[in-house]
Design goal:
There is one protein chain. This protein is α+β, with helices and mostly antiparallel strands and 349 residues long. It has two domains: 91-122 and 214-347, no CATH class; 125-212, Pdz3 Domain (Roll). It is built from eight helices and ten strands. Strands 5, 6, 7, 8, 9 and 10 form a six-stranded antiparallel β-sheet that branches. It has a two-stranded antiparallel sheet with strand order 1-2. The protein has a two-stranded antiparallel sheet with strand order 3-4. β6 and β7 (159-160) form a beta hairpin.
């Protein structure tokens, strides 16, 4: 598969579905959406349908749904004031629904793609009392005695493994150890003449993994449970990555456009299911990232709406617009810093 095509499809669909969530949440409450754009800048293609102008714009780094009544109005003198229509007239729960609509759509798409992957490839479940060899190091003792990638070790010297890490027991005593291995459905024995002259056995291994192939509905709920379990770690990674990038320190916790291109290239080589897994991860990441309380993101707007509701509307429209503008500038600078980090990572800077 072509890397550029994979990237265009994943980002195009992910951004479109996010903005569509905002649009649907607004339209369901009777709020007009004058414009819907994939990308920023001058429109390359536009048409009007169902009361909305649909645009494909020149800069493919995001998109927006123009919700009526969300931005401040301006008087004849140029002074901003709060609008009295559309989004501004919604109750608190209605405003929250519009703001989280994009996140919900990204989550639904991510869970759907994860469920599809689980249905086709299975849900991996580790079996901790079996050690599965992932890789045999060329020229190592493991290669000389006949271990192969995919071998599943069940016992050593007649003693069944209690944990997959029991494979390290071989190193504790010199002599010939008999390792019981399951290979292609057959049980065989591999003799390992261990001595202190060896540093390592020469294998990369982990617990044996079995795959359960559920029906789509169960796989969908497993996807929800899995993503919720990882949410705290993802939030920590985003905060850590943003903090380090903001002070110019490289971080493995976050990647920019070049990093996504690299991931798309790897997925394109591996096939359709790898592309689906990457798209699921990107949509999950977009959902979590957009919920961060940073001005300019959905989470930042949501925070301002909640503060305004609690304070009785004390945040003036011009102040809210200024906060969001500063947040937008911060996000652009952050993207530049993360892109520079990607360049350093790829070229060893």
């Amino acid at each position: 598969m072509n890397t550029a095509l994979v990237l265009i499809i994943i980002l195009g669909v992910s951004i479109s579905i996010h903005e569509l969530g905002h649009l649907l949440a607004a339209r369901l409450q009777g709020v007009a959406v004058p414009a819907f754009s994939i990308g920023f800048g001058p429109p390359l293609l536009r048409f009007k349908w169902a009361g909305t102008e649909w645009r494909l714009s020149a800069i493919p780094l995001g998109g927006y749904a123009e919700i009526d009544g969300m931005a401040p109005d301006f008087s004849a003198s140029g002074a901003p004031h709060a609008p009295k229509r559309g989004f501004a007239t919604l109750p608190l729960w209605g405003k929250v629904l519009v703001l989280v609509g994009g996140v919900l759509m990204n989550l639904l798409l991510s869970w759907t793609l994860m469920a599809l992957n689980y249905t086709v490839n299975g849900i991996p479940t580790p079996v901790y009392d079996r050690a599965q060899i992932i890789e045999v190091i060329p020229g190592s003792l493991a290669e000389k005695v006949g271990f192969r990638a995919g071998d599943v070790i069940t016992a050593i010297d007649g003693h069944k493994l209690k944990r997959f890490t029991d494979l390290n027991e071989i190193k504790k005593e010199s002599g010939v150890h008999v390792v019981t291995v399951m290979r292609e459905g057959k049980e065989i024995e591999v003799k390992v003449p261990w001595s202190k002259k060896y540093d390592k056995l020469g294998v990369r291994y982990g617990p044996k993994v079995v795959y359960d192939h559920p029906r789509f509905i169960r796989a969908f709920f497993v996807s929800i449970e899995t993503s919720l379990r990882f949410f705290p770690d993802m939030i920590k990674s985003f905060i850590s990555g943003i903090s380090r990038a903001a002070v110019g320190k490289p971080s493995p916790d976050i990647v920019g456009p070049l990093g996504i291109v690299s991931l798309a290239g790897q997925a394109a080589k591996q096939g359709v299911m790898a592309v689906i897994r990457l798209a699921a991860l990107i949509n999950l990441s977009l959902a979590v990232f957009n919920l961060l309380p940073i001005p300019g993101l959905d989470g930042g707007r949501l925070l301002l709406v909640l503060i305004n509701a609690v304070s009785g509307g004390r945040i003036r429209p011009e102040h809210e617009a200024m906060v969001n503008f500063i947040g937008f500038i911060f996000l652009i600078l952050l993207m530049v810093l993360i892109t520079l980090q990607d360049v350093q990572r790829f070229f060893g800077g």
